[in-house]
Every structure is written in structure tokens, then in C-alpha cells.
């Protein structure tokens, strides 16, 4: 009888200990979390490499409490489809890529044509308090942005010889050309102002669209042009350096808010470190990517006078976003004042 009572007592004690320990784990934020992330670029692309780094440091710093799953090379669908999954928060919780207006219209300010003179200006602005305020604006759309970097170097234009036999040397060379553009209003407004016929094509479908002549050309940083092998179906590379894209690290806000405070801090710091690493390797790689393109395409560089004509032609695009309420003139002025120091 005593033995039975002792056994029952120890069983109850064990249950109490387990329950108390489980409660303690929950109270201390001891649960485990899975973060599923996707982007369109290949594993060898700087964006994907920086996310492999993010996975390593986040899992180490969180001591395994957050597990990261990476899905690259567009295996989860187009960028629009991938972002929709992140917004829903069921199949994916993280993304890096385009479709900025879906994330926050304020990100479009970074995409204004000829807004930056160099990449240092861009990275400094995106990491500043100004940049953090733009990141926070995505919360209205159910998204958290712990860090924003640059999506490679300046964007430049490639074209086929069929309708642009000499490449793009001046504004007139773009007249009537069907230019592939992302689903980004500032880009379409820019190419309309330059006299082209902007045609929205999904990033993953761009190669085929260039190959079959649906579009005459496209614009991207050197890294993306090489990664997607657009040079195989183009003839000229025109170095206009017309735009930089931001690279916001987009996270489902509800998933992020479920993290305990200590993991939120660890997650955000890992994201900032990974984005800094991304900027470092991505921008450094642009030189080698350009060398690849120079060996495959005829490189055209507009004269200083011709480039000034490009800048003048798109002047109204800067005010378009203000009239649409995407960002304010005060934000443009603040950003321009800030970057003047770099």
C-alpha cells in the first residue's frame, strides 16, 4: 500500500514538474519557430548567398529556437505570388524582391529615376532614421521590414539589334521600343516619359519575352542580367545608371509579433547583419558581372550631354508620386538633403 501511494505521489509530482517547466518555457519565450523564406534568384546570386548567411547566424544566435527554411530560384512562384504568400503568412513568412507598392508605396521614393549619384548615398539613406521610418510604413499592410539594402548596383538597359541597332545612346533611341518593366509604376512612368512602350512582364518570364520578341529590351542591374542570362537574347548593353532599387527584407507581421521580445531583437539584428553582408557582396560583384556582359554584348555609354537629356526627360516622374500620395515632397527634400553629404 505504501509503495502504491509513493508511486502515485511521484507520478503527480512528475506531472507538476513537467507542467511547471512547460509554463516556464512559454513564459521565457522558449517555444520553437519556423521561418520560411523565398526569392527568385539562383543559389549563387548575392541575394540568396546573404540569406544563407542569415539562416546560419539566426539559428546560431537563437540557439535553435528559430529554424530557417530557404526556397530560392523562384520555386515558390513569381515574385507577386511569393509576396502574396508572405502576406497570407501560411506557406511563407519572408521574401526579398520587387512589387514595392504592395509592400509600401513609400518605398517607391527610392526608385525615382536618377535619384542617387552613387550606391553609398543609397545604403546610407536606407540605414538611416529616414529609412527606418519608411520600413515602418509597411506595417499598415501587415508586413515587418527589419532591414532594407540595395538590390544590386545601378539598373541599366539591354536591347536587341532588331529594333535598336545601335543600342541606347540617347533618349531618341528609346522611341517606340517595347521595354520590359516590372510591375512598378515609377518604372513605367519613366519609360513612358522617355518615349518607350513599357510592357509589364514577370521577372521569371522575361527571358522568353526577350527571346520571342514580345519585348525589345529590359533594364536590370548587371548581376540580374547575368544571373538570368538575358545577354543570350540581347545585343547591346547601354550603361545609363538610371535607377537603384531598394531590397526590403519583408516579413509577415503577425508571425513576427508572435515572437517573444528576445527573439524579435535577435531576428532584427540578424536581418540587419545579413542585409549589410548582402550590400557588401552584391555591390562588389557588379564589377565581375559587368565584365561578363562586356564579353557577351556591345557596350554603349551615353555622353554626359546625352545623359543630361535623360535626366531632363524624366523630371515630372519625381512629382508624379507626390500627386498620387505615395510619398511627400518633404520626404524627397529630406532625402536629397541627407544624401548630399555622401
Give a structural overview.
With 342 residues, the protein is α/β, with parallel strands linked by helices. The chain folds into 2 domains: 149 residues, Bacterial extracellular solute-binding protein, family 7 (D-Maltodextrin-Binding Protein, domain 2); 139 residues, Bacterial extracellular solute-binding protein, family 7 (D-Maltodextrin-Binding Protein, domain 2, 3-Layer(aba) Sandwich), CATH 3.40.190. The protein is built from 14 helices and 13 strands. Strands 2-1-3-12-4 form a 5-stranded mixed beta sheet, sandwiched between helices. A 4-stranded mixed beta sheet has the order 9-6-10-13, with helices on both faces. Helix 2 packs antiparallel against helix 11. It is globular and about 60 Å long. It starts with a helix and ends with a helix. 44% of the residues are buried.
Unreliable stretches covering 5 or more consecutive residues: 1-29
Oligomer: single chain
Quickly count the domains.
2
CATH architecture designation of the largest domain = 3-Layer(aba) Sandwich
Give the beta-strand count.
Answer: 13
Mean pLDDT: 92
- N→C terminal distance: 83 Å
**Main sheet summary:** 5 strands, mixed
What is the number of helices? 14
Using brief descriptors, characterize the structure shown:
four-stranded mixed sheet; 342 residues; alpha/beta; single chain; D-Maltodextrin-Binding Protein, domain 2; globular; 48% helix; disordered N terminus
In short:
By secondary structure, this protein is of the alpha/beta class. The chain is built from 14 helices and 13 strands.
Amino acid at each position: 500500500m505504501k509503495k502504491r501511494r509513493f508511486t502515485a505521489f511521484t507520478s503527480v509530482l512528475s506531472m507538476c514538474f513537467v507542467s511547471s517547466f512547460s509554463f516556464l518555457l512559454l513564459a521565457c519565450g522558449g517555444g520553437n519557430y519556423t521561418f520560411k523564406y523565398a526569392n527568385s534568384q539562383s543559389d549563387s546570386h548575392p541575394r540568396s548567398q546573404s540569406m544563407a548567411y542569415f539562416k546560419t547566424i539566426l539559428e546560431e544566435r537563437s540557439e535553435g529556437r528559430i529554424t530557417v527554411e530557404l526556397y530560392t530560384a523562384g520555386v515558390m512562384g513569381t515574385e507577386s505570388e511569393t509576396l502574396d504568400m508572405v502576406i497570407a503568412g501560411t506557406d511563407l513568412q519572408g521574401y526579398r524582391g520587387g512589387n514595392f507598392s504592395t509592400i509600401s508605396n513609400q518605398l517607391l521614393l527610392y526608385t525615382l529615376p536618377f535619384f542617387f549619384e552613387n550606391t553609398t548615398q543609397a545604403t546610407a539613406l536606407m540605414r538611416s532614421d529616414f529609412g527606418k521610418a519608411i520600413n515602418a510604413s509597411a506595417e499598415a499592410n501587415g508586413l515587418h521590414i527589419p532591414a532594407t539594402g540595395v538590390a544590386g548596383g545601378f539598373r541599366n538597359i539591354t536591347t536587341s539589334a532588331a529594333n535598336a541597332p545601335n543600342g541606347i545612346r540617347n533618349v531618341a533611341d528609346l522611341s517606340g521600343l517595347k521595354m520590359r518593366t516590372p510591375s512598378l509604376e515609377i518604372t513605367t512612368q519613366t519609360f513612358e516619359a522617355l518615349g518607350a512602350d513599357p510592357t509589364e512582364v514577370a521577372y521569371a518570364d522575361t527571358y522568353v519575352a526577350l527571346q520571342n520578341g514580345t519585348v525589345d529590351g529590359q533594364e536590370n542591374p548587371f548581376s540580374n542580367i547575368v544571373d538570368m542570362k538575358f545577354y543570350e537574347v540581347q545585343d547591346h548593353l547601354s550603361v545609363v545608371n538610371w535607377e537603384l532599387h531598394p531590397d526590403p527584407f519583408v516579413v509577415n507581421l503577425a508571425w513576427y509579433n508572435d515572437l517573444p521580445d528576445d527573439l524579435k531583437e535577435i531576428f532584427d539584428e540578424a536581418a540587419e547583419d545579413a542585409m549589410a553582408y548582402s550590400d557588401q557582396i552584391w555591390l562588389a560583384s557588379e564589377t565581375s558581372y559587368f565584365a561578363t556582359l562586356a564579353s557577351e554584348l556591345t557596350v554603349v555609354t551615353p555622353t554626359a550631354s546625352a545623359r543630361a537629356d535623360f535626366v531632363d526627360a524624366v523630371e515630372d516622374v519625381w512629382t508624379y508620386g507626390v500627386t498620387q500620395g505615395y510619398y511627400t515632397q518633404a520626404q524627397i527634400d529630406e532625402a536629397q538633403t541627407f544624401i548630399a553629404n555622401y
